[in-house]
């Protein structure tokens, strides 16, 4: 269990894992990449049944109003199984954006006519009706129920909208405005399960300073969800590598018995282990709408990306040539990690954001003091000594 | 739906205990650093400092009251550590006893041993050195050759112990000895405490990288140890020692306060010395800060798990590799930021009283001591990941 997570969160992750493990997600991802989204959309409906698509939707709109702490648990599991589709967009960023829009920001009621065009009425989503009035409530309800998949372009971090073909709602959110987006040219991603669409802004939905704040929050939410996917994908790559290294025999022994292999995989485990708490604390910070949101979300994205990339490189090396094939499922994770590593802000942008936050003052440079976890407040029964400080000097042995 | 729990949410600085520690340290930490703990004068000064800490009941806050502590929860120990490092307080001269021997005694010692050993350890009236390694038993600790031979009322110790931290000036030491002739590897070992001033003990200080004598070689020639100084059962020393090894690698050897404080100083150094367009150095500063924060969050979560009744096993190896590599990277980044000034090692002119350079030289030892990082990675691979042996 991930350090710091509750038993309920572990159970939630376990039930998602069990469902996805049975859902033949790699096969669905391959068909998604080939243009047949039906099996993948079935996975999305199953996720909706378990509440995943409702997590970020407020209760008043038919959602669960869950916190980001729970959202990252879900997104990590989606990354763990390389679920195809606009995960960070539809599960996190778009519902957060719509829910955060101020009530008076709407540019006007929408009619069905305004929404015509583009890919909005997806053939893949039978029953998904376009909301005509009192937006965004019907969209939020649709997202929560799993009847609607949404995506968005949010330049400059997200210059293209991913998977518009699967989405019943495509938004363009930038410069303090939110618009319905019309997808244009479509590009292939390095991840065959993702397609990238250029979009042009259509019907104006909302604008103003408060809208800019809502967009900023949606970007942080999507970045956090993307980081969680990366961490989950990294875990899957480590698990696959450990399995392969235990089975593949060379020189008469499983290759996992060689230290050169062991130590690489140990480093992967270390990277993933210490990225986890950064992800979870960023979720807690975002839940609290804390002043440290930018710092913590970016730190999580940096650490999860680095950990996932190390997992991917090592997984390929440990698998050898078979890992370098399309035949082996490993490529689904390898290429998704590469795609997500640059999505939702580059490593350089996120490191710059962290530095901007921590270097504003001598005080800001410090670490937060006083992390408190309720469970840690009780004395350690029968375990009185944690030992004491080790200042400055080595304890050789 | 809102699943309860979540990670260590930053909860501000409201703890009364934190305030007490901070205030006390502000009033008592020497303005100028004490002389090096690896000199006779400095060792005495550090022992004196420990007396002050103990008088304020701050030397062993998580220990029971009877032994000089406060019976405080593990979290308070982490709080103490964070404040201690943030205040740049002196090195803990008794650290080997405090965080290696004491946890072993709590787990395996008799009531008589606890009563006899712990109070004087808490006040540093007795300072303990460790005596694990031998010339031919380093990473391969089970290759120990030093012997304990049964004698009237106790044991006679003979052999050589190596790389014994603090042994040059400490009072007592603890380690493993082969007590069953012919027993191989981890069998037939006994965990013993012994007096460094006893007849038959010769200590030869070893000058380390950087010139100090932080460790020593110990020669033992028929040194008598009473039976009361065996910890656990004779012959069961390996199992007893492994509980200590886990402490050394994980929670208790390196509290996150050390890295949090160093990362904060690094960011401040960047503010003063960093070129705003040097994104390569900027990224290293950021990564060091992120690493220190990750280690802190992870440690707090682990402390919460232990407080809830969990235990710490092979996963302590994850932390050992992480903090030791973080420490090197953090200090190398600081020295690179200092440019040519980083080389200065004279007390009159060096930067920040030499703390970056000293810290760097010290950090280089981290991947080696407390079980080399190679040993740790093997432990992670075999015991956590389940790779074949």
Outline the structure in words.
- The complex is a heterodimer of chains A (397) and B (389).
- With 397 residues, chain A is of the alpha+beta class.
- Chain A folds into 2 domains: 7-208, no CATH class; 214-359, Butyryl-CoA Dehydrogenase, subunit A, domain 3.
- Chain A has helices spanning 7-22, 25-33, 38-49, 68-80, 87-100, 137-145, 209-247, 259-287, 293-319, 330-342, 347-358; strands at residues 150-153, 161-162, 169-174, 177-188, 195-207, 249-250, 253-254, 371-372.
- In chain A, the strands form 2 sheets. A 5-stranded mixed β-sheet of chain A has the order 1-3-4-5-2.
- In chain A, helix 4 runs antiparallel to helix 8 and helix 9 runs antiparallel to helix 11 (347-358).
- The longest helix of chain A has 39 residues, at 209-247.
- Chain B has 389 residues and is α+β, with helices and mostly antiparallel strands.
- Chain B has 3 domains: 16-93, no CATH class; 128-237, Butyryl-CoA Dehydrogenase, subunit A, domain 2 (Beta Barrel); 250-384, Butyryl-CoA Dehydrogenase, subunit A, domain 3.
- In chain B, a hairpin with a 2-residue loop joins strand 3 (147-151) and strand 4.
- In chain B, helix 9 runs antiparallel to helix 10 (355-365).
- Chain B is globular and about 70 Å long.
- The termini of chain B are far apart.
- The relative contact order of chain B is 0.10.
- Chains A and B meet through helix 1, helix 4, helix 7, strand 7 and helix 8 of A and strand 1, helix 3, helix 4, strand 4 and helix 7 of B.
- Strand 8 (371-372) of chain A pairs antiparallel with strand 1 of chain B, so a sheet runs across the interface.
